[in-house]
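Pipeline run #58 for the internal structure catalog. This entry was flagged by the ingest filter as a single-chain record with no existing model, so it goes straight to prediction. Upstream metadata was stripped on purpose; only the residue string is passed forward. Reviewer on rotation: M.T. Logging verbosity set to normal.
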Amino acid sequence: MNPLLIKNYTAQAVVLPHRIVKFGAADGEVLHAAAASDLSVGVTDTLGAELGGRVDVVRIGIGNVEYGGTVARGAKLTSDSTGRAVAAAPSAGANAQIIGTAELSGVVGDIGKVLINPSIMQG
């Protein structure tokens, strides 16, 4: 992991380690991203947090993320329904929020590296 910017937030719900997160309902809160359309802001550290606990989120740099599907090195990554990283493949006319680019290939359950660079991919 080569984080350049880590920010600490309050967990709006239980937040697992190595998951993609989005902003919560209130300022300073995060929770798992749950869809490719969720505005992802970073990946959680190795600890995660309980509801109301504090969690570090890698916002810029290379972070570790759990894969939710087969990922090829260089793929643009988005979130599945539980905050795991999957290859983005938006349908025609749909947008996917991208957290970054996979640095390593892997399969479901692997902890891979992602170069965090939030953007949008249109299908």
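catalog note: The longest strand covers residues 54-66.
catalog note: Residues 24 and 115 are 23 Å apart (CA to CA).
status: ready for reviewer M.T.
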